[in-house]
């Protein structure tokens, strides 16, 4: 059994569910993710970027990939993700990789949620206890051909030098991955505005500062409250 999730804040080790845990700790909405590179080549590029910008960034990507390469030996690979941009980009990268394999685990399953009973506001899996995460396990489903096909199209569009490719996928039928459309549209809002050259995050920060919110401890949560789905970590925000 192999579990793949978005980061070490997710308490999968406390669920009582057996298996190796791999964290897909890459902020794909920041930095280069060019087309035409294999996973190994892209990991090298991403590691250079992450190491340059974040504490301990990039140090676990090679180990992550090694676990992925061994996944065909597993009886099941379970993907644990949530609804925001950070997670949806990771999810389509992983699904794209599995779609291109000649060999695969006996079962590839998915848990992907945008809410949890009693947790308001819900931002992500990292808010849940091991016991709460364990309640999601029986509801996992085997990844479908439609989910794989959509992920392949979305990952290709995301890596394209032409952002209208992302717009095209976001405007298509994305019901196979129900959180993908909103995530891709949020990604497009990070491109510079034709009106003032600012992306959405930059505009929100400046509006908050103009309104009197000036310190980092104030700005970070205030900006998060302006998001439909919080995806930005404190290091990226800083």
Key features of this structure:
238 residues; alpha/beta; five-stranded mixed β-sheet; 10 helices; 42% helix; 9% strand; globular
Give a written overview of the molecule.
The protein has helices at 39-53, 61-69, 85-99, 130-134, 145-159, 164-170, 180-188, 200-210, 216-224, 234-237; strands at 2-5, 20-23, 77-82, 108-113, 141-142. It has 238 residues and is an alpha/beta fold. It has a 5-stranded mixed sheet with strand order 2-1-3-4-5, with helices on one face.
- Taken as a percent bin, the fraction of beta residues is 5-15%
**Uncertain spans, ≥5 residues at pLDDT below 50?**
none
Q: In DSSP terms, counting alpha (H) and pi (I) runs of 4 or more, how many helices? A: 10
Main sheet overview: 5 strands, mixed
Shape category: globular
Q: Percent of residues in helical segments? A: 40-55%
How far is the N terminus from the C terminus? 37 Å
Mean pLDDT, as a whole number?
A: 94
Helix vs. strand class: alpha/beta
Strand order of the largest sheet: 2-1-3-4-5
Which secondary structure elements does this structure contain, and how are they paired or packed?
Layout: E1 2-5, E2 20-23, H1 39-53, H2 61-69, E3 77-82, H3 85-99, E4 108-113, H4 130-134, E5 141-142, H5 145-159, H6 164-170, H7 180-188, H8 200-210, H9 216-224, H10 234-237
Parallel strand pairs: 1-2, 1-3, 3-4
Antiparallel strand pairs: 4-5
């Amino acid at each position: 059994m192999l579990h793949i999730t978005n980061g070490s804040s997710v308490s999968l080790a406390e669920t009582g569910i057996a298996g190796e845990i791999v964290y897909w700790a890459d902020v794909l909405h920041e930095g280069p993710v060019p087309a035409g590179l294999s996973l190994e080549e892209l990991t090298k590029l991403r590691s250079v970027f992450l190491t340059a910008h974040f504490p301990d960034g990039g140090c676990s990507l090679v180990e992550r990939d090694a676990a992925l390469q061994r996944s065909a030996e597993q009886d099941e690979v379970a993907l644990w993700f949530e609804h925001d941009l950070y997670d949806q980009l990771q999810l389509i990268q992983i699904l794209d990789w599995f779609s291109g394999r000649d060999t695969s685990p006996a079962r590839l399953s998915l848990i992907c949620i945008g809410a949890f009973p009693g947790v308001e506001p819900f931002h992500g899996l990292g808010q849940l206890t091991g016991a709460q995460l364990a309640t999601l396990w029986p509801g996992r489903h085997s990844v479908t051909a439609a989910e794989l096909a959509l992920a392949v199209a979305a990952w290709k569009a995301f890596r394209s030098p032409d952002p209208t490719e992302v717009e095209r996928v976001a405007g298509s039928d994305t019901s196979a991955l129900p959180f993908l459309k909103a995530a891709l549209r949020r990604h497009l809002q990070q491109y510079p505005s034709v009106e003032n050259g600012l992306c959405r995050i930059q505009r929100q920060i400046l509006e908050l500062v103009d309104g009197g919110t000036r310190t980092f401890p104030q700005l970070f949560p205030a900006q998060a409250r302006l998001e439909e789905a919080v995806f930005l970590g404190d290091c990226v925000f800083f």
